[in-house]
Amino acid sequence: MRQSGVRLKFNTVKGVLEGRTVVVIDDSIVRGNTSKNLVKLIREANPKELHLRISSSPIVSPCYYGMDFPHKSELIANVHENNISKIEKFLEVDSLEYMTIDEMKEAMVDHAPDQFCDACFSGNYPTPIDFSITKEEYDE
C-alpha cells in the first residue's frame, strides 16, 4: 500500500502529542489538501487540542506574476466563502487564525508596505491582467 505524501513527509510521535495542545504553524493554505491530511495524521496521535496558525492571509485569488496558484474555484478560502469558521470545520482543527494583510506588511520591516503585491490575498492586481494568455502556452 502506498503511503500519502504527508505521511511520508511528517511523522508523529504519539507519546509526545497524546493529550497535549498542539499548534501547527504553516506559511499558507492554498487548496487545503496538505493541511487536511496533516491534521488527520496528528489527530491519530490523540492530542487534547489542535490549533492551526497561518503566517499569511487567506489566498483568495490566483497569482499571475509567477506563483503557480490554482483557479479561484480551487482555493480553500473561496470554496468556504472566506469564512474562517467554515475552513476550521473543514480542516477539523480546534481553531484557525491567519495573519491579516496589514500584519504581513508590518512584518516586512525593511520595505515600505506599498512595495509588496498582495493580489493573491486581496484580489487587487497592480496591473491589468491579460486573461487571453495562459501558462500552458509556455509549458513544455
Keywords summarizing the entry:
140 residues; Rossmann fold; 3-stranded parallel β-sheet
Short description:
The chain is an alpha/beta fold and 140 residues long. The protein has one domain (5-137): Rossmann fold (3-Layer(aba) Sandwich), CATH 3.40.50.2020.
Structural features, described:
With 140 residues, the protein is α/β, with parallel strands linked by helices. It has a single domain, classed as 3-Layer(aba) Sandwich (Rossmann fold). It contains seven helices and three strands. It has a three-stranded parallel sheet. Strand 1, helix 3 and strand 2 (49-54) form a beta-alpha-beta unit. The longest helix has 11 residues, at 33-43.
Would you spell out the secondary-structure blueprint of this structure?
Elements: H1 5-9, H2 14-17, E1 21-26, H3 33-43, E2 49-54, H4 76-79, H5 84-91, E3 95-98, H6 101-107, H7 119-122
Parallel strand pairs: 1-2, 2-3
List the uncertain runs.
none
Provide mean pLDDT, rounded: 87
Query: Taking Cα atoms only, what radius of gyration do you get, to the nearest Å?
Result: 17 Å
Count of separate DSSP helical elements:
7
State the domain count. 1
Structural shape? globular
The CATH topology name reads Rossmann fold
The secondary-structure element order is HHEHEHHEHH
- What percent strand? 5-15%
Task: Please state the structural category.
Answer: alpha/beta
Helical residue percent? 25-40%
